[in-house]
């Protein structure tokens, strides 16, 4: 069975990342076709990248890195839930990605983003980042603008359009996650 992690990528107080990630996880589990878990970057308390060796060497020195690597390694694909901060990726998510290398290789990546413009610029940056980590990103994505998906900036209320887009994203992410198992074998 394909295993996919929904990665909540913001650690900011008052973040929407968990609301959105919880919605994604609920819908994923209702849909089936894979096993889905939540990886919340906030739960790992990663400092700014402090490993003395490049992650591509796989020689992790710190316990927080080893714990993060063990959590990430067991999945076939990742669905990144990202905010858009200043036209890019939250620093905590970029840092979490930068801590590891081989654990991300030859796995699938999908994106659910949110922000004033739906987070699309953050996803543009994430696509470049995951490519360097040797991940295959799927085309389908979910973009959640504050104006239409969040009532008064606080309560996340996904539209029918977002619900449909999420199903298309699941279809592609599950397929690619399964296909890449053969590449890693």
TrEMBL record:
<dbReference type="InterPro" id="IPR050712">
    <property type="entry name" value="NAD(P)H-dep_reductase"/>
</dbReference>
<dbReference type="Pfam" id="PF03358">
    <property type="entry name" value="FMN_red"/>
</dbReference>
<protein>
    <submittedName>
        <fullName>NAD(P)H-dependent FMN reductase</fullName>
    </submittedName>
</protein>
<dbReference type="InterPro" id="IPR029039">
    <property type="entry name" value="Flavoprotein-like_sf"/>
</dbReference>
<dbReference type="InterPro" id="IPR005025">
    <property type="entry name" value="FMN_Rdtase-like_dom"/>
</dbReference>
<feature type="domain" description="NADPH-dependent FMN reductase-like">
    <location>
        <begin position="2"/>
        <end position="148"/>
    </location>
</feature>
């Amino acid at each position: 069975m394909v295993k996919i992690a929904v990665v909540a990528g913001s650690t900011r107080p008052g973040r929407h990342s968990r609301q959105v990630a919880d919605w994604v996880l609920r819908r994923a589990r209702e849909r089936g076709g894979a096993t889905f878990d939540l990886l919340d970057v906030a739960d790992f308390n990663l400092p700014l990248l402090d490993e003395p060796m490049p992650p591509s060497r796989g020689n992790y020195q710190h316990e927080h890195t080893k714990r993060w690597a063990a959590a990430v390694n067991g999945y076939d694909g990742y669905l990144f839930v990202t905010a858009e901060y200043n036209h890019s990726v939250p620093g905590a998510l970029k840092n979490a990605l930068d801590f590891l290398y081989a654990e991300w290789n030859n796995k699938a990546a999908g994106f659910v983003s949110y922000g004033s413009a739906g987070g699309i610029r953050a996803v543009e940056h994430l696509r470049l980042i995951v490519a360097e980590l040797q991940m295959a990103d799927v085309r389908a994505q979910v973009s959640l603008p504050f104006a239409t998906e969040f009532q008064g900036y606080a309560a996340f209320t996904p539209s029918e359009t977002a619900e449909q887009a999420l199903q298309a994203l699941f279809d592609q992410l599950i397929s690619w996650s399964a296909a890449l198992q053969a590449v890693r074998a």
